[in-house]
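Hi R.,

Quick one: here's the Glycerophosphoryl diester phosphodiesterase sequence you asked about.
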Amino acid sequence: MMLMSRRPRAVLAALATGATITAFLTTPLPVAVAEPALGSATAPTPTVNETFDGTTLPAGWSAVDGTWKVQGGRLIGTSASASQLSRITFGSPLTDFRIESHLRFDSALDGARWVAFGLDLAPSGAVPWSIATLRNGSTATNGLEFAQRTPANTWNVTDTAAAPIQVGVGKEVAVAVEVRGTRATWYVDGRESLRTTMVSRSTTGVQGLLVNGATVSFDDLKVTPLDQESFIRKPGAPLRVWAHRGGSSAAPENTAASDEVARRGRAEWIENDVQPTKDGVPIILHDTTVDRTTDGTGAVRSLTAAQVAGLDAGSWFAPAYVGQRVPTLASQLDGLKTRGGNLLLEVKGEHTRASVERIVQEIHSRGMSSRVFVQSFEPQHLRWIRELAPELPLGLLRSTLDPDPVAIAKDLELSAYNPSDAAFQTRPGIVAELHAAGVAVNVWTVDDATRWNALEKAGVDGIITNRPAELTGWNTAFAQRVKPAATILSPAAGERIDRAQVLRVAVGNNSAEPVALTLDGVAIVNGSIVDTTALAAGKHVLTATVAGSTVESSFDVIATPTGLANLVLTSGATPSTVSTMTTLLGQKQYAVLATYANTPAARGLTAVRRQQIVAEANALAAR
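And here's the predicted structure, written out as tokens:
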């Protein structure tokens, strides 16, 4: 918890009446010692980084509806009614990014009112758009949402969940959403809270904020591009779901129908097989012949694309799928682009460099490089892909393990090494070896929950399965059963702390393993007390890592009259200087106090404390 410093109440009472308090200076006041000196963590360069220190909307920000203003170091958005969708847009088109802020409901019509990050909006704010929503009643079953406003101006809510904490009016909370293409993850209070694979994207959409039936204020808003994705599973994250030949347990494999089943089943990636027809057109088919999965016969590579296009690829599976066709790679990519989804593309069988080049051309011509992952059993195919499209992540499929998986992974510059389940069971230790080399491990093809459990415990990153919807559900149930290894009790996420408060770090450890703590990247001991006068103004982050799992909680050091009083009283300045500053403080003459503290007349102040007093007095004067 955070404890107020045990200072005489008479001190604060004296300040409130404007009296001087020189008499109190002869009695030493308790001052907590910061342990240790604190640094700051580094981060990628944001494209948007606003602290709202001015008095007008930042350049490039466009208020579309509702009332938006900058006041008191915050952006304030107001929607007067439950039907008003107040919007403000900013930023630039980004495929992969993190948007984050500290926000607070200042008022709300009811618990159902909400605030949202705009993940993909037209700069004008016109429909359609995609958002990530947080309700005032955040612990309701739909306290968090991913949703779309359709071209018809109607709602399509794709995913819902309860937030891990109750937000409510007056509580500041740190929130963030990470977006990768059509996938996104909600973070509340530093905790992953909801995932989706259904973000509708455009090529021109920017970021935004939305408010409904409430007044919400924002601070420290950032938009940061994300580096190329690592496919290694983060501690505590669910298994990655790769849908084998689409949702092939419920629809005919490698068809638009099986892709749709996988998409609706929330698979992160849809696996399809590609090989060329006689006339060189890449089509989506697994076997060397069309016999098993269509009403035709013959080798794929002896048939033209037109001949393949006339085949029925659905009736063999069930009457409901009569008329499904063998897709071309082009049509499959178009479907994923317009309806959502990411493609794990297996280059199947033998290919020439020319046929691999045709595959790459289809991907590039549709601008789908950020949403395609290529795998193959053939190392040469992957080498050609690396030459032609170095931006595409690569995976090597294996029925038996290589003598040195790490060596071949480095040689091919793999993002993932993908063995069969039978091969993996011969040497599960390859997970640690490959992870150390920065390479993920995805196991195929596993449809049994018992094996899912074993593979999760073995640390694999994802599973290629015919049952993507079931694995997604298993992931959700598994996450609900797993208790976080560490819980940050203090500082609370989004807490606003002044200089008169002493911060005691408190982290609950639910594991037998030791917990490692850092404050702004510097190690700190659980239970230790941090003197807030030793912290810089602004945001700070406490990170707890235990048993491979990491949680964070951020808080802000802010200027208040009480905090400024603490800076004055513990400054070590001469009694006359302290008396002058406390008199000005009690009279709320903040600007005068800042000016005085910055002159030689304010004797006895260290350079650091002088700078702090001037900064905080000016901050109070600006309110």
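The domain at 48-225 is CATH 2.60.120.560 (Jelly Rolls).

Cheers,
M.
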